[in-house]
Amino acid sequence: LAKTTQPISMDSYEGQEVNITCSHNNIATNDYITWYQQFPSQGPRFIIQGYKTKVTNEVASLFIPADRKSSTLSLPRVSLSDTAVYYCLVGASNYGQNFVFGPGTRLSVLP
Amino acid sequence: GAVVSQHPSRVICKSGTSVKIECRSLDFQATTMFWYRQFPKQSLMLMATSNEGSKATYEQGVEKDKFLINHASLTLSTLTVTSAHPEDSSFYICSARGARTEAFFGQGTRLTVV
C-alpha cells in the first residue's frame, strides 16, 4: 500500500484558498487518490477522488501531476466550517483493497 | 454521495459485557466493509476488512476473537466487541465500498466501557 505524507497542520483565514499537498511516492499504477474530511466525533466525509490530471466538483479541486507522486487538494474560499482534519488516501479500486489512513492535516480556519 | 448508517451512535456498557455495532449501506451494495477505531486526536486505525460472504481479514495486533466481524449480506456488517474492558473505549467507525472506487463512512459509534 502506498504511504502518504501530509503537513500535520495548516492555518488559514476565511475567504482564502487553501491548498493541501499529499506525497505518495510509491503510488501504484492502479491506485486512486481520495480525500476525506473529518469533523470531531464524526465519520470521515468523502470530498473528491482522482486518478490523474485535474478533478473538480462542487466543493474542491484535486490536482495530480503526470508522475502521480503527489496530489494537491484545493479548497476555494474557505469558511470557519471548513475547520477539520483532511486525509489523503491512496489505494486500488479493485475488490478487496483496503484504505489505510495517515495522520491527516488539521486545518484551522480563522476569522 | 452514498449513505452508510451506523448504529448505535453511542453506547455505554459494563466491563465484561459484549456490544454489537451495526453498519448498513442504505442505497448501494457494499462488497467490502472496513472497521476502524479512533482515539482522541489520532487518525483512524484500520482494524479489519470484510468482503461479503467471507471471513474478515484482521490487521496485525487486532484480536479476531475479541472483535467479531460478520458481513453476511451486501448491506450489513456488524462488529461485536466481546468481553469489553475500559481500554476498548474508543470511537469505532465503519465504511463501505461497492462498485464505485471510493468508500463511504458511517457516523461512528462512541463506546464507553465502565
Largest sheet of chain B: 7 strands, mixed
User: What class would the helix/strand composition of chain A place it in?
Assistant: mainly beta
- Based on DSSP secondary structure assignment, what is the total number of beta strands of chain B? 11
Overall 3D geometry of chain B? Answer: globular
Give the count of helical stretches of chain B: 0
If you had to describe this structure to a student in words, what would you say it looks like?
With 111 residues, chain A is mainly beta. Chain A has no helices and 9 strands. Chain A has strands spanning 9-13, 18-23, 31-38, 45-50, 53-56, 61-64, 70-75, 84-92, 105-110. Chain A is globular and about 40 Å long. The model of chain A has no long low-confidence stretch (mean pLDDT 91). By secondary structure, chain B is mainly beta. Chain B starts with a strand and ends with a strand. The model of chain B has no long low-confidence stretch (mean pLDDT 93). The chains are: A mainly beta (111), B mainly beta (114).
Keywords:
heterodimer; A: 111 residues; mainly beta; 5-stranded mixed β-sheet; 4-stranded antiparallel β-sheet; 49% strand; B: 114 residues; 7-stranded mixed β-sheet; globular
